[in-house]
Write a structure and sequence with these properties.
The chain is an alpha+beta fold. It has one helix at about 1-40, and strands at about 55-60, 65-70, 75-80, 85-95, 100-105, 110-115, 120-125, 130-135. It has 2 domains: about 1-45; about 55-135, Outer Surface Protein A, domain 3, CATH 3.90.930.1. The protein is about 30% helix and about 35% strand. Strand 5 (about 100-105) and strand 6 form a beta hairpin. The longest helix is centred in the N-terminal third of the chain and has 41 residues, at about 1-40.
Length: about 140
């Protein structure tokens, strides 16, 4: 009768060891995956400090464009838009040089400050029809 009990006891011990071995394998696999994931997350490159685009539009909380940064044929320009969506100011490059334009609510230029190589700094004022009414060299 002792011979029958020993294989049963032996089988139970063997099953317990196999179960513990399986548990250790699972724990080891989970630990290995965790370490691998941590290594990949830690090895990501730093975020780029350069943003590249031809046009950037800064929008208000309602989604309306308020600042437009763009590059045209003559060079870069920054345009400001009022609360009604009208263009009101533009700072940019022209063929002659840098210029700042101030526009009225009809989006007509009313004042212009610019610098040209030929004339140096210029300040121009315009009436509501776009005709130059004043010129300051």
């Amino acid at each position: 009768m002792a011979d029958r009990e020993e294989p049963t006891l032996f089988q139970r011990r063997l099953e317990r060891l196999e179960r513990e071995n399986r548990n250790l394998k699972v724990i080891g696999l989970v630990a290995m995956l965790g370490l691998t994931g941590a290594l990949f997350l830690g090895s990501t490159s730093a975020p780029s400090k350069t943003l590249e685009a031809e046009t950037i539009v800064v929008r208000d909380p309602q989604g309306r464009g308020k600042i437009i940064l763009a590059v045209g044929e003559d060079g870069p320009a920054v345009t400001l838009v009022d609360k009604n969506g009208k263009l009101r100011a533009n700072l940019g490059m022209t063929r002659e040089g840098p210029a700042l334009d101030l526009l009225d609510v009809a989006e007509s230029p009313r004042a212009e400050l610019m610098f040209t190589e030929e004339h140096g700094p210029l300040l121009n004022f315009f009436d509501s029809k776009g005709s130059q009414v004043s010129f300051r060299p």
